[in-house]
What we know:
Elements: E1 12-15, E2 20-24, E3 31-34, E4 37-38, E5 45-47, E6 51-52, E7 55-58, E8 70-72, E9 74-83, E10 88-100, H1 109-122
Amino acid sequence: xxxxxxxxxxxxxxxxxxxxxxxxxxxxxxxxxxxxxxxxxxxxxxxxxxxxxxxxxxxxxxxxxxxxxxxxxxxxxxxxxxxxxxxxxxxxxxxxxxxxxxxxxxxxxxxxxxxxxxxxxxxxxxxxxxxxxxxxxxxxxx
Length: 142
């Protein structure tokens, strides 16, 4: 949360008998400017506004409230299959699943991953290594 404040002041005259303001002086300064604010970077999320423009205001103007909302980026889990005997990449960065940043992988992802491995085992390939799937999607932009 970022809050910016501009201060305005004025001198008024008050009737001490009636306790009422009898004169309202001019505002000082007469205008003010809120500077531009660039939306901060949050890994794995994209703001709906890249920045909030500078804005000139007057003392009589109502408070301004601007909300920047962040949406989770799409992420993907990929796999690569390498034949170590021939030093050949059989499948490179194939998408296994996708989802939003910092959310759990969909149900069935592990089974899908296992079935890909099993298909290669059925063709006579030997499993050298198999990376553990993450519990949830990461926050990078790739």
